[in-house]
Write a structure and sequence with these properties.
heterodimer; A: 154 residues; alpha+beta; globular; B: alpha/beta; Transcription Regulator spoIIAA
Chain lengths: 154, 128
């Protein structure tokens, strides 16, 4: 209400549409919690069922933990897909870590190199509709998963 | 976020109140294992009603807690696993084998009461 404040233009954030995408830098176990909470919040906007939201949050948690365990640092990105008939989220976990030398083996049930602290990728694969992995030794790993919203409940 | 651990008669009750980081989970594990000896507790209840996510690390830690408490001579019951969390755990392929669970705190205490009664009966009939 102060005239000095009126002189400055209104902050742009007031009219900006809500972001369709979030990104969380993963450095430690605290960031795992951050990433899954922010991801759940974002996905919640599409009206996923509580069960699907838990599946999405758990997926983010597992992928973020893989970053902490294997790469030390990386990034989780969650993006809403909201066009046409399909609605859903895309979660991308990216790191510049050591990479995975044998991807088929890493996708085998029960396989984990870090004393099975993480559940490994097979568990994550079962939680989502679409799972892609690209990895190069010495370059890093990118895992991209998709979860679609069901049309009439479950 | 520290988890309060309260003494309730012969039992310890740890009520998780918000999301826990890996570090928080390990702290909870260590605190419970220590307190069960300090307070000579017969049973431990971990209430996870407030947890909206139980990933592989959390599940593994709860399994560890139950195992360690057993080695300390007491029983553990995990109570309040939410339906969505239960669904996700099954999808993930995580198991809580050998760990007692109950719907809520009340059921958990009833379960421990039954367990501890059976144990004390067994020791009085066979011991001398």
């Amino acid at each position: 209400m102060d005239s000095t404040f009126r002189a400055t233009p209104a902050p742009a954030t007031t009219r900006e549409p809500e972001p369709e995408e979030i990104s969380v830098v993963i450095l430690s176990d605290r960031d795992i919690v951050q990433a899954r909470q922010k991801g759940r919040e974002l996905a919640g906007r599409l009206g996923f069922s509580p069960t699907d939201l838990t599946l999405i949050a758990t997926t983010i948690s597992e992928l973020a933990r893989n970053i902490v365990l294997y790469a030390g640092r990386g990034e989780i990105m969650v993006k809403l897909v909201n066009h046409g008939e399909r609605q859903g989220v895309i979660v991308t976990a990216r790191d510049q870590g050591p990479g995975i030398p044998d991807i088929p083996r890493a996708l085998q049930a029960g396989f984990s190199t870090s004393r099975s602290l993480g559940l490994g990728l097979p568990g994550v694969k079962r939680l989502v509709d679409d799972f892609e992995i690209a990895s190069q030794v010495g370059q890093g790993t990118t895992v991209t998963v998709k979860k679609w919203k069901k049309l009439n409940g479950r | 976020m520290e988890v309060p651990i309260l003494k309730q008669g012969p039992y310890l009750i740890a009520t998780v109140q918000s999301a826990l980081s890996d570090e928080d989970l390990l702290q909870l594990r260590d605190a419970i294992v220590q307190k069960v000896g300090q307070l000579r507790s017969r049973g431990v209840i971990v209430d996870v009603t407030a947890l909206d996510v139980m990933d592989s690390f959390a599940t593994r830690t709860f399994r560890d807690i139950a195992q360690m408490i057993r080695l300390r001579g007491a029983d553990t019951v995990i109570v309040g696993i939410q339906p969505e969390v239960a669904f996700t755990l099954v999808q993930l392929g995580m198991r809580l084998e050998g760990i007692a669970t109950a719907l809520d705190l009340e059921e958990g205490i009833a379960l421990l009461d039954r367990k501890c009664k059976i144990t004390s009966k067994a020791t009085t009939t066979s011991g001398r």
